[in-house]
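Let's practice the habit of predicting before peeking. Look at the sequence and jot down your guess about where helices and strands might fall. Then scroll down.
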Amino acid sequence: MSAVEAKDIAQKLLDTMGIPAVVEVSSDEPIYLNIKSDDSALLIGKGGDNLRSFQSMINTLYRRTNKEAGYVGVDINGYKKERVEKVQAMAQELADKARETGEDQHLKPMNSFERRSVHTLLSEDPDIITDSEGEGVNRHIVIRKR
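Done guessing? Here is the structure:
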């Protein structure tokens, strides 16, 4: 399987849904697709719910023909990239506050993709520890001074 095949699956899904969009391959390994559409609000949904569901459908269809296929990441009009940048900026501010005050700092609940980006970003800070707490939709990151 290839990025072109994943792109074709995404484009066929969008066409079937009647949503005008252009699918671009932004990375071959791992495969990452960026979808450009004027209907991005519909595709992204509240808090990215529709985007996660759409990505899941693409991955399910992609793996049907190749059980060994890897993960296919999907973004819509750069939503995920922009969201991760905002979350990481907020996390960095809270890490600075934790370092200054010594008090634990709690981020709002977020999905696993966003949490992973924060853990990765702050893992390089020798003064800070991050933990995920809570369950399900309430799972969030706590930033602590080491």
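How did you do? The chain has a mean pLDDT of 93.
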